[in-house]
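Re: weekly structure request thread

Next one in the queue (242 aa):
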Amino acid sequence: MLHHEIQSEDKILFFKKEYISEFVYGGIDGAITTFAVVAGAEGASLGITVVIILGLANLIADGFSMSVGNYFSTKASRDNFDRHKAREYWEVEHLGEAEKAEIREVYEAKGFRGELLNQVVEVITSDKDVWVDTMMKEELEMTKDGKTPIKTASVTFLSFLAVGSIPLLAYIFAGLDSGIANSELFLYSSILTGIALTIVGALKSIVTERNIMAGIAETLLLGGLAASLAYFVGDVLEQVFM
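Done, posted below.
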């Protein structure tokens, strides 16, 4: 039911489907890493100002690093596709008979025989663009991703910032004299992070076509493990150095 409520023909919530994976994984990484910073600072009994500074520095640095990596990964994939496609055009132009034989082999393997096979080969090889596209898909098993490097990097960075800032909200409000008791800050941060991971975990399940409850549980478990480890390390370091 939830799947049908938040998924439409072209969008999931207000995101285009083709970019939802970038939002999901950027958001998960942002929430978990920032909450780990908060947990580590809490374990080391650091002040509110330090938590905010460390958290924001982590958001900007890690978010930018992740988006840059996403940019170069997407760009490399597109460049690799374009390079192979250019080579296929050259082979069609200069090695036409051999390439036509390959088309015939591909469709023979699919069960085409006799005159029907001849017609299929003739139709495909009569259009150079169709011919090359067929070779890319059938021989090289390559299709071009419609996502651009700039957009994937931007979505990753923005989702990292948006979702990753949630664990810091309680501390930021406390720093603005909201009246929240310092002893309750980590509890509020944990609750807010849990809500954020629940939503993003549900979206992740839609992207991966898995059971939504299993996806939420997995995301919450990973976030909890990361935070627990960071809290433990912070507590140990505080005892050793302070």
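The CA atoms of residues 107 and 204 lie 37 Å apart. The chain has two domains: 19-82+146-241, 84-139.
Next request, please.
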